[in-house]
């Protein structure tokens, strides 16, 4: 079974500045969904960052993914990457976790 990674995205600039790159950020994430490595993503409430859940080869691959994010490239956010093993999970995740 794959390890999962929770990427806590912490905004480093005011949300108004972050919004200027929001569309680019979402387009970047779409590529992760197309590759089959992302499971879910979205803003935290309140909107002081976001959360991305994905399955990467290892923590280095998750870090490399974060470096490609327009939010990171434009110094609007930084990632905190947490690794966990999904010992229990919904059956609907079987295919995603076994790929």
From TrEMBL:
Signal peptide: none annotated. Residues 5-84 form the YCII-related domain. This is GTP cyclohydrolase. InterPro entries: Dimeric_a/b-barrel, YCII. The lineage of its organism: Bacteria, Pseudomonadati, Campylobacterota, Epsilonproteobacteria, Campylobacterales. PANTHER family: GSR2449 PROTEIN, YCII-RELATED DOMAIN-CONTAINING PROTEIN. Belongs to the YciI family. Keywords: Hydrolase. It holds the Pfam family YCII. GO terms for molecular function: hydrolase activity. Gene3D superfamilies: Dimeric alpha+beta barrel.
């Amino acid at each position: 079974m794959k390890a999962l990674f929770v990427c806590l995205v912490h905004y480093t600039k005011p949300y108004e500045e972050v919004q200027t790159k929001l569309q680019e950020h979402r387009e970047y994430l779409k590529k992760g969904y197309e590759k089959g490595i992302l499971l879910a993503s979205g803003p935290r409430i309140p909107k002081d960052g976001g959360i991305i859940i994905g399955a990467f080869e290892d923590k280095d691959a998750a870090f490399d993914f974060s470096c490609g994010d327009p939010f990171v490239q434009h110094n609007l956010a930084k990632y905190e990457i947490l690794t966990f093993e999904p010992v229990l999970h919904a059956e609907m995740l079987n295919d995603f976790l076994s790929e």
